Amino acid sequence: MTQAETATRYKGIFGAIRRLKDWVEGLAEKRYALTALAILAISESIFFPIPVDVLLIALCVGLPKKSFKYATLCTLWSVVGGVLGYLVGYYLWYDTGPDGVQTFSGVANFFFSTIPSFSVETFESVREAYEAYEVGLILAAGFTPLPYKIITITAGVFSLNLPVFILASVAGRGARFFLVAALFHFFGRPIKKFIDEKLEILSVLFVVLLIAGFVALKYVF
Q: How far is Cα 85 from Cα 97, in angstroms, rounded to an integer?
């Protein structure tokens, strides 16, 4: 790819998305690819904005016969990250003043100001959703475009039962990653080509689904 083609490819907001996607995919070609998968899966469960599916897909395309191994590792490390997110919410989300009043901690305010889609309003919507759909919400976030990181942290904030949280996370995350593994095990390269060609459309669709998920949190749950 020439310098001009590279500049065009990475131009604008979709170019930034493509640059980050290409960088994550490039990790699949490194000797430390499985270490990168672990780090990305853990990070995405807490704060990283790009779904770990991007690297999982790249690994599955490269070695389709190992797709289910990659899905297993991805599920394992994603749930480990989910537990770390849970602990962030449980131990670090509030500060208690001398008068006993709880306020959002510096960690919480960092997430509100830095993590895309993680706002005080979203936090309150998730609080209300947990009251009615505890396990169902974890399953939905594990499988759908809803940011799993929001669910992991808020699960800790609201002191959900940790073993139940882990089991629901394994089910939701596992279903998602094994579906990806199955698709790329049998139909890998054509799907990868489609994603590369339609990235802009798929990015918009992902955002639409994400917004729809938050609307559901607020008005349906």
A: 24
**160 DSSP 8-state letter:** -
Q: At what angle do helices 67-92 and 33-44 cross, to 10 degrees?
A: 40
* Token couple for 116: 């895309």
CA distance 84 to 46: 7
pLDDT one-digit tens code per residue, 9-43: 556 555 655 666 666 667 667 778 889 899 999 99
102's enclosing H/E stretch is strand 102-104
Q: Which residue has the tokens 């790009």?
A: 50
Alpha carbon distances (Å) from 97 to 4, 24, 57, 93, 120: 56, 42, 47, 13, 20
Measured distance CA(5)–CA(15) in Å, rounded: 12
Render pLDDT for 188-221 as a digit per residue (tens, 0 to 9). Answer: 667 667 666 655 565 555 555 555 555 555 554 4
Specify whether the CB–CB gap between 185 and 64 falls below 8 A: yes
